[in-house]
Amino acid sequence: MKEPQPKKLCYILCYREPNYVRSMSLIAALRRMQGSVVLEAVNTNTGWIRYVEAIARLIRCRLKEQPDTYVLGFRGYEIFWVARLLTAGRVLVFDHMMSPYDSLLNERKTIRRGGILDALVYRYERGILRSSDLVLTDTEIHRRFISKRFGVPYGKIAVVPVGTDESLFYPRHGTGAQGKERLDVLFYGSFQPLHGVPVILEAARRLRDKPVHFTIAGGKGPGKGTPEAHNEPSANVTRLGWIPYRDLPAMIARADLCLGGPFGDTGQAQRVITGKTFQFLAMGKPVVIGRIAEEAGFEDRHNCLLVPQGSVEALEEAILWCLEHRNRLEEIGRNGRLLYERRFSTACISAKLERHFQP
């Protein structure tokens, strides 16, 4: 009796950040699936040439390997229709981590409601979602939003947590908050509206007379310089530019408290658990999380610090509590790591994917 042939999966990526956390965790989870071989049509260049590169690799993979299933990773909106054409006759899975239409209309406010661009962007995104054989997203709230807003059948959408790259983000020895004079707080990101950077900076300003120091890193992306000022600089805030991906774990290990957010209280912020939150949990660091209406296992002052979004007062209070209860932070971090292993790890993501990728 012949052994069953392994199922071939091709992961397609065309993004300015080839090592984006979502891609790394999905590829790792796909590779854990029994009876599957994972191929990649992934860009390495970050400029416009990445489009040519990704499409050329996809064509080569289709002709040479004939995969059974293709997964177009975040964010594949620009090349979706080329990918749909090149994968004709095969299953195409689309990773829909966020809605460009919602972001442009409600978050960034770069298109006018009721205008021509409104209609065009909406129909373009709706067409992508309806033409995909399976849509992945990160939370149940996102699943409901996508189904209702774009008329996508609920059963066609699968919820898969973001997870993280476990080869980089794992518990490491840090200095620890006990015995130190000050509490070191870390935030990094691309400063999107959902992140709520003004909330963080205002909380830092209010805590300027306390032994609390904030490191805020990031901005619009690699090569974009240091983060723009949302208010007057505070003496207890160090602002850094974009941090290389592989340098993040060492920076996290040095922090006493990490800000996962989101704190923006926008529509998008109310539907996500940020990628950095999973990185902090995986490393066993205490993390402040912006509450969303989803049961994800987060318990305030047990495995994280939970705060309502958009509230400077709540964030300030949570940080003050950590300052006064430093002896609890290590335990909270450990419990956060246990939660990560139980619900968000690569093994958990792989098990979820297997249920949807079975023939």
Task: Write a structural description.
The protein has 359 residues and is α/β, with parallel strands linked by helices. It folds into two domains: 7-165 and 346-357, 3-Layer(aba) Sandwich (Rossmann fold), CATH 3.40.50; 183-343, 3-Layer(aba) Sandwich (Rossmann fold), CATH 3.40.50.2000. It is built from twelve helices and twelve strands. The strands form two sheets. It has a six-stranded parallel beta sheet, with helices on both faces. The chain has a six-stranded parallel beta sheet with strand order 9-8-7-10-11-12, sandwiched between helices. Strand 7 (183-189), helix 7 and strand 8 form a beta-alpha-beta unit. The radius of gyration is 21 Å and the shape is globular.
Chart the SSEs and their pairings.
Elements: E1 7-13, H1 21-32, E2 36-42, H2 49-65, E3 69-72, H3 80-86, E4 91-95, H4 100-107, H5 116-131, E5 134-137, H6 140-150, E6 157-159, E7 183-189, H7 197-206, E8 212-218, E9 237-240, H8 248-254, E10 257-261, H9 275-282, E11 287-290, E12 305-307, H10 312-324, H11 326-344, H12 346-357
Parallel strand pairs: 1-2, 1-3, 3-4, 4-5, 5-6, 7-8, 7-10, 8-9, 10-11, 11-12
Helix pairs in contact: 1-12, 7-10, 9-11, 11-12
